[in-house]
């Protein structure tokens, strides 16, 4: 029972990180290796065997952030605490409405903003760079966070479920050489987080008030209220019959 509980907590720990995608890749290689053995695909089997020898050496490097965070949580006594924030359809639509109202108001005032909505790929590493908030999302609350000349104005707000988990967060900048040179740090940070995770980033330009959305390594600009709401519903509202991870709980 102890071993089972520890394994469960480890799964919950990596659920909030990019390690989930790495484990999916390892499982794919394991299945491919077994299939190639059964079908006598000797060349593929030899390549996969050589790949395994390098993977185990690299695991300590690949999972270094997760291992560090696990030890930190264990030291703070938080390893055995986990909060899930899966939303149902109604709650997600309410979240989208609040985001749309806030972003449109910020755009009219030409107030710069960067809002990140976490999806399946966890971004805990970047949440830890900001100031923890744990506040319920509302248009008024987010508007206050992005008031100019305040400590949290220049960083990114990260939303998990229906809560703002942190503000003033630092994100990785995209090094895409084809990105418009007129775009500033907010747009590059939004594109950067979308390149390494499935998060959705909403950007309001401080210079022009233009609303943009970054997702899956793409940046789409010049949204208005209706088109922004439609895009967020397309990206965030769970699709019927969609596949989910075996450790996800349905609202």
TrEMBL record:
PROSITE patterns: DAC
InterPro entries from the UniProt entry: C-di-AMP_synthase, CdaA, CdaA_N, DisA, DNA_integrity_DisA_N_sf, DNA_integrity_scan_DisA_N
Enzyme class: transferase
GO MF: adenylate cyclase activity; ATP binding; diadenylate cyclase activity
DAC domain ranges (all copies): 64-225
Keyword Hydrolase: no
One example of a Gene Ontology biological process annotation: cAMP biosynthetic process
Presence of keyword Nucleotide-binding: yes
NCBIfam families xrefs: diadenylate cyclase CdaA
Family, as annotated: Belongs to the adenylate cyclase family. DacA/CdaA subfamily.
Role played: Catalyzes the condensation of 2 ATP molecules into cyclic di-AMP (c-di-AMP), a second messenger used to regulate differing processes in different bacteria.
UniProt subunit comment: Probably a homodimer.
Name the record gives this protein: Diadenylate cyclase
Gene: dacA
């Amino acid at each position: 029972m102890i071993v089972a509980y520890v394994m469960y907590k480890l799964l919950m720990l990596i659920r909030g990180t990019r390690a989930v995608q790495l484990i999916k890749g390892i499982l794919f290689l394991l299945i491919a290796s077994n299939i190639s053995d059964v079908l006598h695909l000797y060349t593929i089997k030899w390549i996969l065997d050589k790949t395994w020898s390098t993977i185990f050496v690299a695991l300590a490097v690949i999972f270094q952030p997760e291992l560090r965070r696990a030890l930190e949580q264990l030291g703070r006594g938080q390893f055995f605490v986990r909060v899930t924030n899966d939303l149902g359809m109604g709650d997600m639509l309410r979240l989208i409405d609040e985001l749309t109202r806030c972003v449109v108001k910020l755009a009219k005032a030409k107030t710069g903003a960067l809002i990140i909505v976490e999806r399946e790929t966890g971004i805990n590493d970047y949440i830890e760079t900001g100031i923890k908030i744990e506040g319920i999302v509302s248009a008024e609350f987010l508007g206050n966070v992005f008031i100019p000349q305040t400590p949290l104005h220049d960083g990114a707000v990260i939303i998990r479920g229906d809560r703002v988990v942190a503000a003033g967060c630092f994100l990785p900048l995209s090094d895409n050489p084809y990105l418009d040179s007129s775009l500033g740090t907010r747009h590059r940070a939004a594109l950067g987080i979308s390149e390494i995770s499935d998060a959705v980033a909403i950007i309001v330009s401080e210079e022009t008030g233009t609303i943009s959305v970054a997702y899956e390594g793409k940046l789409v600009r010049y949204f208005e209220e209706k088109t922004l709401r439609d895009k967020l519903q397309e990206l965030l509202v769970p699709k019927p019959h969609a596949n989910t991870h075996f450790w996800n709980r349905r609202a």
